[in-house]
Design a protein that fits this description.
The chain has helices at residues 6-18, 24-42, 56-71, 89-100, 111-117, 141-150, 226-232, 258-270, 285-291, 324-335, 346-351, 371-378, 382-387, 389-400, 435-447, 453-473, 484-489, 491-498, and strands at residues 49-53, 76-80, 105-107, 123-127, 154-158, 180-184, 202-206, 221-223, 247-251, 275-280, 296-299, 313-316, 341-343, 365-367, 403-406, 411-414, 420-423. By secondary structure, the chain is an alpha/beta fold. The strands form 2 sheets. The chain has a 10-stranded mixed β-sheet with strand order 8-17-16-15-14-13-12-9-10-11, with helices on both faces. A 7-stranded parallel β-sheet has the order 3-2-1-4-5-6-7. Strand 2, helix 4 and strand 3 (105-107) form a beta-alpha-beta unit. Helix 8 packs parallel to helix 9 (285-291) and helix 8 packs across helix 15 (435-447). The longest helix has 21 residues, at 453-473. The radius of gyration is 26 Å and the shape is elongated. Belongs to the NnrE/AIBP family. Belongs to the NnrD/CARKD family. Its EC number is 4.2.1.136, 5.1.99.6.
């Protein structure tokens, strides 16, 4: 499933029409018909529906939806919120079809009139504004959106909630707060942003027959799904041995935070790593070994050096503290260029002063910041990162030639060449200390077993989130009591599901 900007979507539509030979009226028919069918599944015929149409393709979709719902016997009224001369092109064509079928279209141009028309309406179908919104909403539509949001009716939006920008890095003026959005063809960037995603409510993508070749015209940003995981996940050979599945090293854990590396090391082993060594403070070893007896252990010296020879992957930073000695370990690990390195937590704090070393590494470097850590690394405000996470992640990954996992409700995974993926698994139960340490452990196991670092990252994020989802769905946990250790234990069910 590709994720697009407004400009991308315009190019896709243009290709479908110009190169694919699909008339715009057909695309509009496909969209409206498919959404109408979804509405018929979701709502009873006793529901009184008001379809609110504006100019442009969204309004045209609304006319088609009205035609199909009316034909099926739904009590529908069509409220046109713009003057007649604003309805042009393909939308005008479908308006005429609706008129020929004797469906009345009421022109509603004031907020008072709209409020009057929404009395006793159970369902509002929002087909007012499309993906081209980028700033202030003009009156009277601005006031109309406010009135719609104040109604008790359920709100369904077509493609995007009216007033909401499709792209990142735009300010919201006012927008429809939908209960559900039927997204036409491809989800837009704003679906995956913390400040705009809630406006969509529940959502579903509706294909409308765009040829796959159309997506060759745009930058490739897509979501990673279970099918992708199953196709890319490495199979274990019958005669493999522990050395076949990677020798990993986990570095971290100051005396007051031994749990972090304990979680990472156990997660790595549970995710399939052949051998895991934990390098930590001597006093931590008995504590961690009691939780993860399958790992091996190495005492960290105070000299800031650890030999990485013989290891297939390294994860550093979890609970290691922010003193100068900890920084020397991060610097030393980065200087050893022939081993893939994952840097998380306190390791990212120390990395801030070592960014110049990243481009010099021959092996992959994987960073796993949350929004606060990303803000620290880029000298930006957290809100700036949240507003434009795709751009910020891509620019950072390309500049420093790193693989980047920007963690959030929707995690954005970026390769050094700018390729981006989005992971949508996971739930609010993961908003708890230790879950990031678990992800680092899973990631360590996977980068040692996958040929592609990007696929390893995608699969690690997906499976980490899927474990949390299955724990909730099965009733083993709720989003309140889910612990990082529960996510590790849940990996068994994930791998069973994949088999």
């Amino acid at each position: 499933m590709y994720i697009v900007t407004a400009e991308d979507m315009y190019e896709i539509d243009r290709f479908a029409i110009d190169q694919g030979g699909i008339d715009g009226t057909i695309l509009m028919e496909n969209a409206g018909q498919a959404i109408a069918k979804e509405m018929m599944i979701a709502e009873e015929k006793s529901c009184h529906m008001a379809i609110l149409v504006g100019s442009g393709n969204n309004g045209g979709d609304g006319f088609v939806i009205a035609r199909y719902l009316k034909n099926e016997g739904y009590p529908v009224k069509v409220l046109q919120l713009v003057p007649n001369e604003k309805i042009k092109g393909d939308a005008a064509y479908h308006k005429q079809l609706l008129i020929h079928q004797k469906v009345p279209i009421q022109e509603v141009l004031t907020t008072d009139k709209l409020l009057e028309c929404l009395v006793n309406v159970d369902i509002v179908i929002d087909a007012i504004l499309g993906i081209g919104v980028t700033g202030e909403i003009r009156e009277p539509l601005r006031g109309m959106i406010s009135i719609i949001n104040e109604q008790n009716a359920r709100i369904y939006s077509v493609d995007i909630p009216s007033g909401l920008p499709a792209n990142e890095n735009h300010t919201i003026d006012i927008a429809i707060k939908a209960d559900r959005t039927y997204i036409v063809e491809a989800p837009k960037q704003s679906l995956f942003l913390e400040n705009t995603a809630p406006y969509y409510g529940e959502w579903k993508v509706i294909p409308i027959g765009i040829p796959i070749e159309a997506y060759g015209m745009i930058p490739k940003v897509r979501s990673w799904n279970l099918k992708d995981v199953k196709v890319s996940f490495p199979k274990r050979a019958t005669f493999s041995h522990k050395g076949s599945h990677g020798k990993g090293l986990v570095i971290g854990g100051q005396e007051l935070m031994p749990g972090s590396v304990a979680l990472s090391s156990r997660a790595a082993l549970k995710a399939g790593a052949g051998l895991v060594t934990v390098a930590t403070m001597e006093r931590n070893i008995p504590v961690i070994a009691n939780y993860c007896m399958e790992a091996m252990y190495q005492n960290l010296s105070n000299f800031g050096h650890i030999d990485l020879a013989g290891f297939d992957g390294v994860a550093i930073g979890m609970g290691m503290g922010r003193n100068r000695t900890a920084k020397t370990f991060v610097e030393d690990v980065l200087a050893q260029e022939d081993v893939p390195v994952i840097i998380d937590a306190d390791g990212l704090y120390h990395l801030k002063e070592l960014l110049g070393m990243l481009q010099e590494r021959r092996s992959p470097t994987i960073l796993t910041p949350h929004y606060g850590e990303m803000a620290m690394l880029t000298n930006q405000e957290i809100e700036t990162i949240k507003k434009a996470p795709f751009t910020m992640a891509k620019e950072f990954a390309q500049e420093h030639q790193v693989y980047l996992i920007l963690k959030g409700k929707y995690t954005i995974i970026t390769a050094p060449d700018g390729t981006q993926m989005v992971n949508a698994t996971g739930n609010a139960g993961l908003a708890k200390g230790g879950t990031g340490d678990v992800l680092s452990g899973i990631l360590l196991a996977f980068i040692m077993q996958h040929e592609s670092v990007l696929e390893a990252m995608n699969n690690a994020c997906f499976i980490h989130g899927m474990s949390a989802d299955l724990r909730i769905e099965s009733g083993q946990n709720t989003v309140i009591d889910l612990l990082a250790s529960d996510v590790i234990d849940g990996l068994t069910n994930v791998f069973r599901t994949m088999s």
